[in-house]
TrEMBL record:
Pfam families: GreA_GreB, GreA_GreB_N. Residues 5-75 form the Transcription elongation factor GreA/GreB N-terminal domain. Residues 86-157 form the Transcription elongation factor GreA/GreB C-terminal domain. Keywords: DNA-binding, Elongation factor, Protein biosynthesis, Transcription, Transcription regulation. Belongs to the GreA/GreB family. GreB subfamily. This is Transcription elongation factor GreB. One of its GO terms (biological process) is DNA-templated transcription elongation.
Length: 160
C-alpha cells in the first residue's frame, strides 16, 4: 500500500465490530454446524456441510481483509483538525455546481465511504479536488460524466 489508509474513529470502530462479530460469533457457530453436518454421513450431497464450508471460506477471507485494513489504518479524528477553514480529512463540505445545485459531502476514509449517505472516500476524484479548499474556492474535477466545476459554499467539522 503506497498511501496511508486514513479512517475516522467511528469507521475504525465499525471495522473492528465487524471483525469481532465474525470471529467471535458467526465463525464458531458455523464451525459447529459444519461439524454436526460432517457427522451425518455422505458429505457430497449434504447441503449444510457444502454451504457451511463455502461460507466459512468467505468469512475467513473477510477476516483476513479486515485484519489487513485495520493494521494499515491511520485513525484521524476530524475534531482535532488544526486548520478548520479548509477541507481536510473529516470535513463536511457544501458545494454548488454550475446549476447552483448544492450538496454536502463528508470526506472520510475509503473503507467507510457511502455515497448515498454523502460520505465520499478520501481518494475519490471529487475528494481529491476538494482537499485544501476554502469557502469561495472553485474546484474543477474530471468525473465519468465529464468535467465539472464546483464552488465551495461551506466547510465544517462535525463530531463523529
Amino acid at each position: 500500500m503506497d498511501r496511508p489508509n486514513y479512517i475516522t474513529p467511528a469507521g475504525f470502530a465499525a471495522l473492528r465490530a465487524e471483525y469481532e462479530q465474525l470471529f467471535a460469533t458467526e465463525r464458531p457457530q458455523l464451525v459447529e454446524t459444519i461439524s454436526w453436518a460432517a457427522g451425518n454421513g455422505d458429505r457430497s450431497e449434504n447441503g449444510d456441510y457444502i454451504y457451511g464450508r463455502k461460507r466459512l471460506r468467505e468469512i475467513d477471507r473477510r477476516l483476513g481483509w479486515l485484519a489487513k485494513r485495520m493494521k494499515a489504518a491511520k485513525v484521524v479524528d476530524p475534531a482535532r483538525q488544526e486548520d478548520r477553514s479548509r477541507a481536510w480529512f473529516g470535513a463536511t463540505v457544501t458545494i454548488a455546481d454550475e446549476d447552483d445545485v448544492e450538496r454536502s459531502l463528508t470526506l472520510v476514509g475509503d473503507d467507510e465511504a457511502d455515497a448515498r449517505a454523502g460520505r465520499i472516500g478520501w481518494n475519490a476524484p471529487l475528494a481529491r479536488a476538494l482537499r485544501g479548499a476554502a469557502v469561495g474556492d472553485l474546484r474543477r474535477v474530471a468525473l465519468p460524466a465529464g468535467e465539472k466545476e464546483y464552488e465551495v459554499i461551506a466547510v465544517a467539522y462535525l463530531s463523529t
